[in-house]
Design brief:
The structure holds 3 protein chains of 3 kinds.
Chain A: H1 20-23, E1 27-39, E2 45-57, E3 61-65, H2 72-78, E4 87-96, E5 99-100, H3 106-112, E6 117-120, H4 124-127, H5 134-138, H6 140-144, H7 150-163, H8 182-194, E7 200-204, H9 212-229, E8 232-237, H10 240-246, E9 249-254, E10 257-263, H11 264-269, H12 274-283, E11 301-313, E12 319-331, E13 336-340, H13 347-355, E14 362-367, E15 370-371, H14 381-386, E16 387-390, H15 394-397, H16 404-416, H17 420-433, H18 450-463, E17 468-472, H19 480-497, E18 500-505, H20 508-514, E19 517-522, E20 525-531, H21 532-536, H22 542-550, H23 558-561, E21 608-610, E22 616-618, H24 623-631
Parallel strand pairs in A: 3-8, 3-9, 6-7, 7-8, 13-18, 13-19, 16-17, 17-18
Antiparallel strand pairs in A: 1-2, 1-4, 4-5, 9-10, 11-12, 11-14, 14-15, 19-20, 20-22, 21-22
Chain B: H1 3-32, H2 38-43, H3 49-59, H4 65-77, H5 91-126, H6 131-145, H7 148-162, H8 178-212, H9 215-222, H10 227-264, H11 270-280, H12 283-311, H13 313-316
Chain C: H1 28-35, H2 41-63, H3 95-131, H4 133-147, H5 151-162, H6 166-193, H7 196-204, H8 208-216, H9 221-244, H10 256-262, H11 272-296
Helix pairs in contact in C: 2-3, 2-11, 3-4, 3-6, 3-8, 3-9, 4-6, 5-6, 6-9, 9-10, 9-11, 10-11
Classes of the chains: A alpha/beta, B mainly alpha, C mainly alpha.
Chain lengths: 632, 318, 306
Amino acid sequence: MTTPSPTLNAPLSKAPLAPTRFADAAPLVEVANLKVVARGEDGREFPIVKDVSFSVKRGEVVALIGESGSGKTTIALSVMGYARSGCRIAGGRVRLGDCEVTALSESGLADLRGRRVAYIAQSAAAAFNPSRTIMAQVIESALIHKTATKAEAEVKARALFTALALPDPDGVGDRYPHQVSGGQLQRLLAAMALITDPELVIFDEPTTALDVTTQIEVLKAFKAVVRDRDTTGLYVSHDLAVVAQVADRIVVLRDGAIREVGATGQIIEAPRDDYTRSLIAAAEPQPRAAAPLRETPAPLLEVTNLSAGYGGLNADGMPHFPILDAVGFRIQRGSTLGVIGESGCGKSTLARVVAGLMPAARGAVTLDGRPLPPTIAGRSREDLRRIQIVFQMADTALNPAHSVSKALSRPLTFYHGLTGAVLDRRVFELLDLVKLPRGLADRKPGELSGGQKQRINLARALAAEPDLILCDEVTSALDTVVAAAVLDLLVELRRDLGVSYMFISHDLKTVRAICDDIMVLYAGRKVQAGSREAMAEPPSHPYADLLTASVPEMRMGWLEGAGAHASNFIDPADKTKGGKLFSRSGCAFYPRCPLGIAGTCDRERPPLRVTPQGSEIACHRSDADLMSLTAR
Amino acid sequence: MNAGMSRLLLTRLATAAGTLLFVAAAVFVTTTMLPGDVAQEILGQSATPEAVAALRHGLGLDRPPVERFLSWLGGLLVGDPGLSLVNGVPVATLIGGRLSNSLLLAAVTAAVSVPLALLLGVSSAMLRGSIYDRVVGTATIFVVSVPEFLVASLAVLVFAVKLRWLPALAQAPQGHGLLDLMRSFAMPIVTLTFVIVAQMARMTRAAVIDTLAAPYVEMARLKGAGPIRIVLTHALPNAIGPIANAVALSLSFLLGGVIIVETIFNYPGIAKLMVDGVATRDLPVVQACALIFCAGYLLLVMLADIAAILSNPRLRHR
Amino acid sequence: MTHHETPPPALAEAPPAGGPSTDSLSAPSSRRHLSFPKIGVVGMLGAMIVLFWLVMALFGNQFAPYDVGEILDADVFEPMSRLYPFGTDYLGRDILSRVLAGTRQTVGIALIATSLAALGGALGGLAAAVTGGWFDALLSRTLDALVSIPSKMFGLILVAAFGSSIPALILTLAVIYLPGCYRLVRAVAVNVAALDFVLVARARGEGKFHIMTREVLPNIVGPVLADFGLRFVYVVLLLSSLSFLGLGVQPPDADWGSLVRENIGGLPYGAPAVIMPALAIASLTIGVNMLIDSLFGRSLRRKGAA
């Protein structure tokens, strides 16, 4: 265990704010030997936070970083004297200024919460009461703690809305939570926290649930108010790159214990602990070697002009609620196509249509030159065998009632007719293939870790001996270190078995690490596609450029410099304000595009053209115009 | 009120009307599928075939089923469900006074039990896990799992036999004072209240506990809100739908409870009429009473759904 | 979605806490015993009560101290005594013997009726959940409408139509509770059928029957069993109520409800002949409730309440 000694805590970040700022200040928060226990289903208590000590000085932002189960949220909540149902603070001290939090009564804690310490939750959509207006909830702590009258608090709230760069700061308070987008709610939650000018603000993964282009906006807003108000913060996150932008110091946690404490610069540049190093390595995935392409005359999979959606069909054969709009691509045998886009862009629907789980409205899916029937019912067992799908949520993708061996046996029997000893041997071979011990064969999914479950999912797909595996966000629900190992496995299997992947992800870093070709989807349309190398070069489609610019980099000061051009865009999920999320008539990205040409981009659908670098771009602007965007 | 909401409400009304029609058809079909012949039963085994045929004709039993259903349905709509097969009195007359007796019983019971149950349910949800919660939980599960006639019997034993506070049977009120009225109805109301309160308190508690587990309630707690504020401004407004549902479902248990209670206390209500009708196979009486009960149930459930729709902020504010 | 960072601490590539440790070679059967829900003192008590009445339903006659129909005493509605532990009834017969003999009627009819309802409901619910479309819509709408007839009312109507013979009673009770079973099974099955592993099975090309029986069914056994127990309680209560109204089991047979009815005249005297059969019903229903509560928890109770 590492107890931070005060002399080692000089912050290296926030260079303009000199280290002397903290030098003479006594710590605002002191956590000493904190122990939190949880009660298991069998009624026994087990520790989830083990003897944790650290401190936060006035004006400092300290990050608690770790993977799921590291106890980071639990620790942050105990600073408010709060333990979730089933948990209990079992030992240690938490001091806030002159106040012993751990010794307070329930009413003493109520006086502290919302007044001296405020909390910003991960999911703003869940943290707002659906049946009250936003303003009533934002000013509630001020009224509870009587720091202001209702009228004063509302004036202050509007000022905070403006400071947090919220659109329509005068009107947003009258709305109900469901009428406002997720990114805006997250900022409103910050206004709620700051309304009483608390001494400490706890940020609990406040941007994790957001799309990457929204995250950057929210982070900027947070950073601005924290700087302007000299707020002391405790920032909980699993994402080192995000934390590098906002924190002065970082506490690295694992399994409820501290692994390393240090200034942000030291942690990301010169980590001392092995675990910290593995976290950093996993957060910055290195490109894996590309597959040696086997020269074949025809692509393995060819999708042409594919449209799909919900509701009945219009006169022109398009669905009323289109999800995919005229998407086309090819996957060569043994190669990997990465499909990237924000939530709702249609990438998961694409996998479902290719697998036959959802029929296409228009267009064709061709496997090895042979058109595939649109639905499962129409496809032969052999067709089905050749395309397998692996889902994001490892938990729900395995039948909890079936053992590992049963899950793996079924496709072996179903597609290959294996039984008896041959079947058992093949199950063991599959476990070997995904690098799991054979002893797991008898286990039920509930007894496996997340990474193990995802490997079983992969093994089940491999049991069919498919040509193509559709990977739908297969690493998104996993902790970074585990996800990195699964990515390595995918690359290795492709090399050894010659299988192709369609790799769907919202994470540009991951896609760049393992894909040969990349396709960017926006609102169900292909906006750019090309080889990994071509996609790394300008010109880029303005949306692809925004996506690239929004991915946090693991260096301090990135946020200040990055994505300067992105800040003018409307919030993508905001359908009530100004423009629409996307347009159907012209270019889908027009409402958010910094280069949009009125009269052209909002009317005519942009043609696909091939750039000198070899990528396809759907844009009315010339290559030179697009180059200027990237150069900014 | 906006267009989406009015459309939802209209849909809900139409569903209720459709269900009632379906139930009417089901009741009619079931009761006319009687294996025996009503005319034969009325006249006895010794009756001549001619006499039976004449009675069948007189009762309209020789007409095709669809025609009989439609004329029955038409009669119901104008408040004339036909004549009793047993004594030839119009069913409407038989039901008349008894319906108001039953409604009075139900209304008084509801007036007593709804506030009591909400209080018990909300308070035990707030004090979840306390001794109070456990006592309420154990007592209510006991009442819910035993037959109504046991509750009634125990109530008679305690209040009438041992304490001699109340008469064991419900009679038509002897005097005219309110006290006399109360005394004569007391036993049925006490029994029904026990049963309904237990049911409703359990469901209310569950609904409030569900809401108290919501993340926005945790958020309110972390803002320093006290327990009263949390329940009144954060939990209850979001629990209106589930609570209305709990109240409606529990009050529908009242419909079942009434059947037992009216019988055991010999209370001159519509449920007693129906039970007697079943025993004597007096079909028009059974059909009419059954439809009144089903309509009452559908009305309750529909009101609860409407309360849930009206209280949903996503529907109220688009 | 909130990020609940609560137990168990899922370690990077290690099995979750509480599960078996790394000794992956332990036999699967022993693990299954571990995962069986533990029942506490309350559950044990409930199980014992239920077991007792099941034994009585099978062999109650052998344990009865007197012949069921024999009039033993000129004094009617006698209080409890050494001779007659539960007193005597309105004809002077031994109540204990009659209660024990009535177990077969109450438990037997209710058990068969509940099984029929559960079987029919489970088949229909599973088929509707897996098939979907118009089949699901038609079945669901029809049975939903039947649910809106209060159960006691439904019972009266069916008894008016089909009479009170024991087969008619069994069918009546089964028909009344089948829509409820269907709704529960369909509701839980629809949730399971929407999970990714069912999608994987569909994508593999599995047929509807395989998906129903192999993928969905094993995952809804718990809720369906819990519902069976609760439903059994409702059936017992309804059967007793019908008998109490004189519309259920007919003389000379007598279930517990009929015993209460026969002896209701003893109520003003506080005769045990009224209270004892009613208490027998209460002990059975409360016993089943206690057992289910400790086996499946409270979360399921509300779903079955409709």
